[in-house]
Write a structure and sequence with these properties.
100 residues, alpha+beta, Ubiquitin Ligase Nedd4, Chain: W, 2 domains, four-stranded antiparallel beta sheet, 4 strands
Amino acid sequence: MKQAMKRFGIKEEPIDAVEVVIRTRDKELVISNPQVSRVNMMGQESIQVVGDIHERPISLFSDEDISTVAEQTNCTLEEAREALEAEQGDIAAAILRLQQ
């Protein structure tokens, strides 16, 4: 197979990756245990990734922001996260929302 690829001008180079993350607007695709290869076929490069794929939502706020809101309002982390989402990340507004 490698000889056939070489004959057609296809070069494959393995990449020793630990984790691959593809970030979209609303989530991340995390590929663990990846097998990653850089493939050059007649001057065009591409990356081939095989592995275990998991999705995780992108948090727009830091854990520190969430903790601050939760501590100031004595609410749960989930309630703090929801308030931050409702207030588009404005910490002061999220605190005021939860205090009302």
